[in-house]
Amino acid sequence: MTDNYDFLFKFLVIGSAGTGKSCLLYQFIENKFKKDSTHTIGVEFGSKFVNIGGQKVKLQIWDTAGQERFRSVTRSYYRGAAGALLVYDISSRETYNALAKWLSDARTLASSNIVVVLVGNKKDLESEREVTFLEASRFAQDNDLLFLETSALTGENVEETFLKCARIILSKIETGELDPERMGSGIQYGSQRPRSLSTNNRINSSCNC
């Protein structure tokens, strides 16, 4: 039987290897930490239903490999993505320095309108921090990104990160900036036609996040 939902959003989780992308996805979907996680080979997939402003949204999430040798494979999955989590490890300066390259790929290969949230993962490793919150905040501001720090280990801010991205996409549908009817938008109407969207304030206040 077909699942009932108002919208489907295609998401990407991108960033360098070892930043905890697969663990973030697993924590979001299963509400627990993924032990003995190995590097993703190619692409992994997950999905989850969320309620935002009275709309039932299915998030279709593609977790891409961070190793350079898989980039030719993973780039094909960028096409038609509505949102992306751009992940770095707060305890690894190297993963932070690579952010501009990943962001460029997302905006070039997916869409210039893709909604991107910058995610500083492994917040639980505060004693090993190499990237300050302020520094990452400035990068996010300069590149028009939302920014949160998360911990896939403890679950801190993990759900909030996915929901913030989805909430912005829904708001942009409401204002006409994003059109679900447009090919490659990364957005589809669900099996139940969407109820009329209300104001942004209602979306923000009603979101279960």
UniProtKB/TrEMBL annotation:
It comes from the Eukaryota. It is found in: Early endosome; Endosome membrane. GO terms for molecular function: G protein activity; GTP binding; GTPase activity; metal ion binding. Keywords: Endosome, GTP-binding, Hydrolase, Lipoprotein, Magnesium, Membrane, Metal-binding, Methylation, Nucleotide-binding, Prenylation, Protein transport, Transport. Its cofactor is Mg(2+). Pfam families: Ras. The keyword Magnesium applies. Residues 188-209 have a biased composition (Polar residues). One of its GO terms (cellular component) is early endosome. PROSITE patterns: RAB (PS51419), RAS (PS51421). GO terms for biological process: protein transport; Rab protein signal transduction; regulation of endocytosis; vesicle-mediated transport. Residues 181-209 are annotated as: Disordered. It catalyses: GTP + H2O = GDP + phosphate + H(+). InterPro entries: P-loop_NTPase, Rab4, Rab_GTPases_membrane_traffic, Small_GTP-bd, Small_GTPase. It is an enzyme of class 3 (hydrolase). Its EC number is 3.6.5.2. Belongs to the small GTPase superfamily. Rab family. This is small monomeric GTPase.
